[in-house]
Design brief:
46% of the residues lie in helices and 14% in strands. It is α/β, with parallel strands linked by helices. It starts with 10 loop residues before the first helix and ends in a 33-residue tail after the last helix.
C-alpha cells in the first residue's frame, strides 16, 4: 500500500475502517440493531437525501399516501444504516461467517451454468443488501467480474478494492475496453452487473416506473457479444436480524432481442417488479431521475450554490 496513505490526514479514515471491522465481530442481530439506530440518526440529519427519497417514492409508488411513503422513508434509512454497519463483514468476514448470515435461494440456477462454463451475467440492482450479497456471491458461489468506480477517499478505495477481490473477484474499470470483459465472460467467469444508477447523457431514456429515466443500455449488447445468459439476482435483508437472502431468479427468456431500447426497458421492468415486493430496501436516496430528456423540467430541487 502506498506510504502516502499513512499520512495524518488519512488517520480518521483508518479509524473508521478499524471501527467497521470491529463491528463485524458482533453477532449479526446486534449489528442490525446498531445499524437501525444509525439509520434513525441519518434520517434526522440527512435532510437532502430524505427529500430525494420522498420524491422517488412519490414517482415510483404513487398509490401510497403521504403517511405511508414517509413510513417507508424512515424504514429505508434504517436499512441503509444496517448496510453501513455490515460493511465490516464485507471487508473482513471469512466464508464460514458469511455462510451463517447469507441464505442462497435457487443457487442451482447459477451453479448449473457455471459448471457448464456458460457465460453468465448476474443482474444485480441497487438494493441496500447489494454489497453484502456481492461479497457472499464471490465467497460462497463463484468469483466473478465486477465494474469498479474509484472512490475519492484513497484509504476507503483501497479497502473496498481489497475486500471485493479477496475471494478472487476481478475488477474492471468502467472506462475499460469491453473486449477484455467479453473474453473473460466467455471463459465462464460470471459478470456482476449493476444497472440502475443514473449514467447521465451516456444513457438512453426508457421508462422506469412510468417516467423516462436515463439508463445504461449495454446489458443486451454484452449478452449478445458474449452469448451470455442473464440471471436477475436480488439481495434482501430478512426481518428481525435473521440474515440476508440472495435470490437467483430464472434466466430472462428470449434475451437479448436485438433491440437495444426494448432490452433496456425490459431490464427496468424487472427491477420495478422486485422493488414493489420489498420497497423499503430499494436505493431510494439516489437521484435516479436526475438526467432529464431535452426540455423536460428537473424532478429534484436544484442545489443552492454557496455564497463566496
Amino acid at each position: 500500500m502506498n506510504k502516502r496513505f499513512w499520512s495524518p490526514r488519512h488517520w480518521p479514515s483508518w479509524a473508521a475502517v478499524g471501527v467497521f471491522k470491529l463491528l463485524a465481530l458482533l453477532p449479526f442481530k446486534v449489528q442490525v440493531g446498531l445499524g437501525t439506530g444509525l439509520g434513525w440518526i441519518g434520517y434526522q440529519l440527512a435532510w437532502g437525501r430524505r427529500r430525494v427519497a420522498r420524491t422517488n417514492l412519490s414517482i415510483c409508488l404513487p398509490e401510497l399516501d403521504a403517511r405511508q411513503r414517509e413510513r417507508l422513508v424512515r424504514e429505508h434509512f434504517g436499512w441503509l444504516g444496517v448496510a453501513a454497519v455490515c460493511q465490516g463483514l464485507c471487508w473482513a468476514a471469512p466464508p464460514r461467517r458469511l455462510s451463517g448470515i447469507v441464505r442462497l435461494r435457487h443457487r442451482e440456477r447459477i451453479d448449473a451454468l457455471v459448471a457448464a462454463r456458460r457465460p453468465v451475467i448476474v443482474l444485480v440492482p441497487h438494493f441496500v443488501g447489494l454489497e453484502l450479497g456481492g461479497t457472499a456471491f464471490t465467497a460462497l458461489v463463484h468469483p466473478g467480474i465486477y465494474m469498479y468506480q474509484r472512490i475519492r477517499n484513497p484509504v476507503i478505495d483501497a479497502q473496498v478494492r481489497h475486500a471485493r477481490t479477496r475471494f478472487g473477484a476481478i475488477p474492471i474499470e468502467r472506462q475499460d475496453d469491453l473486449r477484455g470483459l467479453i473474453r473473460t465472460l466467455k471463459s465462464g467467469v460470471p459478470f456482476f452487473y449493476l444497472p440502475d444508477q443514473d449514467p447521465g447523457r451516456r444513457g438512453i431514456f426508457v421508462p422506469f416506473c412510468g417516467v423516462p429515466a436515463a439508463t445504461v443500455p449495454t446489458l443486451g449488447r454484452i449478452a449478445r457479444l458474449a452469448g451470455a445468459v442473464v440471471i436477475p439476482t436480488f439481495a434482501r435483508f430478512l426481518p428481525r436480524g435473521e440474515g440476508l437472502e440472495l435470490c437467483f431468479e430464472p434466466p430472462i427468456a428470449a434475451f437479448p432481442s436485438g433491440d437495444t431500447e426494448r432490452d433496456t426497458a425490459r431490464m427496468n421492468q424487472l427491477i420495478e417488479a422486485r422493488l414493489r415486493t420489498m420497497p423499503a430496501q430499494y436505493f431510494w436516496v439516489h437521484r435516479r431521475f436526475k438526467t432529464r430528456p431535452e426540455g423536460a423540467q428537473p424532478i429534484y430541487p436544484l442545489r443552492r450554490r454557496k455564497r463566496r
